[in-house]
């Protein structure tokens, strides 16, 4: 049985990171993306939190979510 995969990257807001030095990951957006793919039959296969550099002094987090499902 073959599988297919999709990758979604969700980053925390750049403005909050610049003003406050850090920001929270957008949990509502994460839930919306996961629910949307769940309705289409996708399952969360893997999730990773990664730090990305933002300009010279700041960094922000990003969640990389890998979805999988059986190929139709």
Could you tell me the radius of gyration in angstroms? Answer: 15 Å
| Inertia-based shape | elongated
Strand content of the residues, in percent?
over 45%
The helix-and-strand class reads alpha+beta
Show unreliable segments.
none
Total strands? 3
Question: Mean pLDDT across all residues, rounded?
Answer: 80
Distance between the first and last residues' Cα: 10 Å
Topology pattern, helix = H, strand = E: EHHEE
Quaternary status: single chain
Number of domains: 1
Tell me about the largest β-sheet: 3 strands, antiparallel
* Helix count, DSSP H or I runs of 4 or more residues: 2
Strand order of the largest sheet: 1-3-2
Question: In which range does the helix fraction lie?
Answer: 25-40%
Which tags fit this structure?
3-stranded antiparallel β-sheet; alpha+beta
Provide the fold topology.
Blueprint: E1 3-11, H1 14-20, H2 27-39, E2 43-54, E3 58-70
Antiparallel strand pairs: 1-3, 2-3
């Amino acid at each position: 049985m073959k599988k297919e995969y999709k990758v979604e990257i969700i980053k925390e807001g750049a403005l909050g990171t610049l003003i406050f030095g850090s920001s929270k990951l957008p949990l509502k957006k994460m839930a919306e993306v996961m629910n949307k793919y769940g309705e289409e039959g996708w399952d969360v296969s893997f999730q990773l939190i990664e730090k990305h550099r933002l300009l010279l002094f700041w960094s922000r987090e990003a969640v990389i979510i890998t979805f999988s499902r059986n190929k139709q």
